[in-house]
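HUMAN:
Just now I want nothing more than another pair of eyes on a protein record. I would be glad if you read both lines and explained how they fit together. I have put the entry right below:
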Amino acid sequence: MDTFIPRGLRPDGRGTRLAPPNRFETTRHDAFDDGWGMLDEKEAAPETVLIRDATKSVISRNDSPDLGFDRGLNPYRGCEHGCIYCYARPTHAWIGLSAGLDFETKLVFKPEAATLLERELSRKGYQPATIVLGSNTDPYQPVERQLRLTRAVLEVLERFGHPVAIVTKSAGVLRDADILARMATRNLARVHLSVTTLDARLARAMEPRAATPARRLDAMAGLKEAGIPVGVLAAPMIPGLNDPELERILEAAARSGASSANAILLRLPHELGALFEDWLNRTMPDRAAHVLSLIRQTRGGALNDAAFGSRFRGTGAYAGLLRARFERAARQFGLSETPPPLDCSQFAKPRATAAAAQLSLF
């Protein structure tokens, strides 16, 4: 795989400095201090490196009963936003990299994403259903400004009349408001913006390279003005940390134009538990024990519960109260938990694409 360092990206503001061993590796490397105290020296901040992905397909499918969609598309693996809580971090182990620092500094990009998507949509027998763009990592993370892979994907989806739902925490989505507005007039597009907190300082600590909360709310307003349906994801809700803001987040989102909402409890699968615990102890040691205790109360005494049906909502009294608060606030601010479905009936293969795939007999 080819690698290069993109221009214009600052090497500071990382979510973690840890690089836990890949859980699939049979060996591991541990740092060792020989007495010179060199492990305490501050290392140079790592730059972002891009790795070219040679994948032959771009649509990923799932059969999870917890998700309201069966297919997604992610132009990037890894995410420079560096969100310490990101449930996608452990997926970097699948490509031999660490869920820690590697996830936010070694980004795998799919340069042929649009071409591969067009090929998959053109296959005989393809049945359309809403594709979630950004189901794993953010399609509008900083490097998208240069590579423009997400925009190329949207251009294909528009040509095919294929519905798309976007999940992001970046105001960069406004760059593609022209395409999304045209698709929205045909009920083919919807955007969900993730807002975890309204506190800029907390956001900077949790999500060092993501857009500020104010910019995300501005993006909602911009999408609404362009006629693009927009929803808010108050996710993840972290007990004892940002969950007191739940009602304020939903209210602010509704005022900014959101028409739908959802909330998901913090998930800490695989390596993520240790990464989050380390971050919590470093950034707010006075609250760490309390927050971890509340998380365990929602996860049956553990830091994570992977069971279908409970992994997004948690169990126990605290999780139940959080859910009740969300439902009440959503009703109060007129936010639907289930937005109207997008239209799959307009899907059609463009004439040029069909002709290229098979010549006409006449």
In short: Residues 50-347 form a domain with the pyruvate-formate lyase- activating enzyme fold (CATH 3.80.30.30). Residues 1-11 have pLDDT under 50 and may be disordered. DSSP finds twelve helices and eleven strands in the chain. The longest strand covers residues 230-237.
